[in-house]
Amino acid sequence: MTIFTEHNDVNPVVAEVVRSGFTESRHRGAVAGLAADGTQVISTGNTAVPFFPRSANKPLQAAAMLRCGLELDGELLALAAASHSGEDFHVDGVRKILSGAGLTEDDLRCPPSWPLDPETARRLIARGEGTSRIRMNCSGKHAAMLATCVLNGWPTAGYLDPEHPLQQVIRRTVEELAGQQVPAGGVDGCGAPLFALTLAGLARAFRALVLAVPGTPERRVADAMRAHPEWTSGTSRDEWRLMDAVPGLLVKGGAEGVDAFRAGRRKGRRGQDRRRRAPGPDPGHGGGAAPARRHRPRGTRHRPRHRR
What we know:
Helices cover 33% and strands 17% of the residues. By secondary structure, the chain is α+β, with helices and mostly antiparallel strands. A hairpin with a 3-residue loop joins strand 7 and strand 8. The termini are close together. Helix 1 packs across helix 6 and helix 7 packs across helix 8. The strands form two sheets. Strands 1, 2, 3, 6, 7, 8 and 9 form a seven-stranded antiparallel sheet that branches. Strands 4-5 form a two-stranded antiparallel sheet.
């Protein structure tokens, strides 16, 4: 099945928010789906336009670090690929990664932030605490980057520079897994280099993770994330609920409406309007578009649109 755009270069509506039987908002997006052999069989919207996958790139970055010799497994490897919620167990895990490399949270260069988990944030505020780098959702990735630098004798200062040896390895790995050259680069919200891909390229990369030979860096990342979804996201997050409920599902969201996942079909997709109310991944039906944080207003339900 191949699905094309509704109009020239205008992404179709892929989700609606319905309140009391009334459609109050519609969300446009794009979806790329791959068959088992890697050929693209679903193309909703413009899937050939480069975009920034944002945090959906994190599993690819983690695989690159394992290729550099980083020895993380289980929960801590899932944390290295995470957009975590800043809960206490996440913070403990980040400190373990750092201490194993002889480092502390003072070495982190991600910006200070409140935790994404609302209950944790309220508790910190009640205690009179403020924002911190270690509570920032990307701190696991940054800790793993620093540990990789120590292991390889690379300087930890400037580890976020695009010309740093670590970032060069990450870029090459992203290109290899996506099967395409990175068409543009930027800076992510956490300060790390950001590599643009097409939706089809992102889908190919996630397919490469889950179909890799067991024990390879790529498969280790996919297996760790699926085995420990609460470490990859948080105990109140849609990503955790989905991976916990659907055996074998790998999903990673990113800011600005990105979700990449591998279920029965291999998918990558991106919401166009970036609103916070669009729905999360719908693996049972194979697609939709959603932002990184999904909040369902009281009294509403989401109705994916399906075209055949």
